[in-house]
Amino acid sequence: MSAVTAGPFAVDAVVLDIEGTVGSLAHVQEVLFPYARERLAHWTAEHWDDPRHAGIRREIREATGDPALGAAAAAAVLGDWSDQDLKTAPLKAVQALIWADGYADGSLHGHVYPEVPGVLADWQQAGIARYVYSSGALAAQRDWFAHSDLGDLSALLDGYFDLTTAGGKREPDSYRRIAAAVGAEGRSVLFLSDVDAELDAAAAAGWRTAGVRRAGDPRGTAVGAHPTVDSLHLLRVTSTR
Ligand SMILES: CSCCC(=O)C(=O)COP(=O)(O)O
Ligand SMILES: [Mg+2]
Question: Where is the signal peptide (predicted)?
C-alpha cells in the first residue's frame, strides 16, 4: 500500500462519493448492479402501474418519448440503461427500490473500506460536516450506510445528495447547489471521488478536491491531476474553526 498523503485541507465539510471511494467499485459492478438487473423485468411487471411510482413511470416515458410505454418495454429500456451504466434518475430510483428488499432480508450489504468509519468519526469529532454525493438514489445511499458490512454508519453522516437534489456529478452547478444547501463556501468543502471528471467539476465550482484510487483498481493510481490517496486515512483534513 502507498503512503502518499494529500492535503492539508482546512474545510468545514467533506463530501464523499460512494462507488470507488468509500466502497468498492467491484461490489457495485459485480453485486449490486447485477442484483437489480436480474429483477428489473419482475419489478416492472409488478409495479409499473402502481400510483406510488407515477414519477418513475413519467420520467421513463419522457426519456423514451413514448407516452404509452408499457411495462415490458420499460423493463427493456431500464435493462439497456443498466447495461450501459447510465446514471439516469429513474433507473437509480428503481435500483434503490429493488435493492431495498435485499438489504431488508440481509442478502445485500453496503461495502465500506475498513478505515472509513474511523475517519468519519474523527472528522465528526473535529466539527467537520460529512455528506454523501452519489449517482445512486438517496434511498440507496441511506441503505448502503445503514446496512454496511461494518454496521449501521448512518450516525456518522449529516446528509445525502443525488441526481435529483444536486444534479449530474460532472456539472459544476451541482457542486454550487450542494454548497448552498449545506451553507458552506465552495473553498471550504472537500470533495472525494474516484472519477476525475467529477473532481474537475467540483474544482470548477471552487471546491477543494482529492482523488481516491483503491489498491487493485484497474484504472491505475492517479485520478487526473488531483492529489490522490488510496485510503481516507491518508487525507490531512482539519477544520477551519
Ligand atoms: C449506494 S449507491 C449505488 C451506486 C450507484 O448506483 C452508482 O451509480 C454509483 O455512483 P457513484 O456516484 O457513487 O460513483
Ligand atoms: Mg464513484
Answer: none
Query: Does 1 map to a domain?
Result: no
pTM of the model as a whole: 0.97
Confidence of residue 2 (pLDDT cuts 50, 70, 90): low
78 Cα to the center of ligand 1, angstroms:
16
pLDDT in tens, 153-172: 999 999 999 999 999 999 99
Question: Do residues 53 and 79 share a domain?
Answer: yes
Instruction: Name residues contacting ligand 1 (CB within 6 A).
Output: 17-20, 28, 32, 87, 92, 95, 134-136, 140-141, 144, 169
Q: β-strand 159-161 against 129-133: which pairing, if any? A: parallel
Q: Is the pLDDT of residue 1 over 50?
A: no
Q: Give me the sign of the Cα torsion angle 138, 152, 179, 86.
A: negative
User: Among all ligands shown, which has an atom nearest to the Cα of 136?
Assistant: 1
Q: Which atom of ligand 1 is nearest to the CA of 87?
A: 8
| Dihedral pair phi/psi, residue 108, rounded to 5° | -120, 145
Q: Do the domain assignments include residue 114?
A: yes
Shortest-distance Cα residue to atom 1 of ligand 1: 141
